[in-house]
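Can anyone check this?
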Amino acid sequence: MTRFDLDPLRAALAGPGAVARVGSRAAAGGRPAAVLIALAEHEADTRVVLVEKDAGLRTHAGQVAFPGGAIEATDASAVAGALREADEEVGLPPSEVEVLGVLPPAHVRASDFDVTAVVGRWSTPRPLVPVDVGEIAAVHSVALDVLLEPANRLTWTHPAGFTGPGFVVGDLFVWGFTAYLLDGLFDLAGWTVPWDATRVEEIPHRFARGRRR
């Protein structure tokens, strides 16, 4: 396993390459939101905090995501909003997160959000559990090495005709905007290992329940 040096990532987030990562997903006048990509520095490896949404939600039911949500009027910035949401959803206090940088807002068609991804270093990791149990079913800590392993990467396909980069980690299937952010972050940091993009799989029902009435 690998404990990644996050300082080069900080520099990359401040450079022009970060803007390029949102590409065709550039902000499109949607509601402002923010997510926290919390990179936890364990003794032997570096992991990222992911949440599994509750299966009963109206939108994004069962999907794997980053902690986050809509930016509120009381939030001083997108960074503040991402940190607040992570605290409310999984109990990760803002005081324990060192912000390394942000990715420009990217549009999510399904929810009409313009989402700012905040990247943070978490140097004192510990097990996390759902705090907002109405929205979060589980919290997962996944090693970056596992996500970067070519055997765990694929291209997902949606019945509506959409495709994108995805990750399979044990019984978890990471797709959609979360996988898009991970894929872009790995490229930006120079961590990506060549993988077979021609491996195409459908999204398992558990992770793609869609909108509920």
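Reply from J.R.: I decoded it. Helices lie at 7-13, 16-20, 78-90, 144-148, 176-189.
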